[in-house]
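Same chain as my last thread, 59 residues:
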Amino acid sequence: MTDEKVTLLVIKGVIADLPDADRQGVLLAAAKLREVVALHNDHGTLALALVGAEHAAEG
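reply #2:
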């Protein structure tokens, strides 16, 4: 299994362990992010990576 697949499984596990309201909020936010990425194609994918890297750098 690749590192990326392991990371995905870990994140999905964290989400599954959340209270229902929080889990639903995360799933809604993820759906909205997917819509933005799909709307902007490669630009959307790069923008998502940028925002993720910004959050990671914040600590």
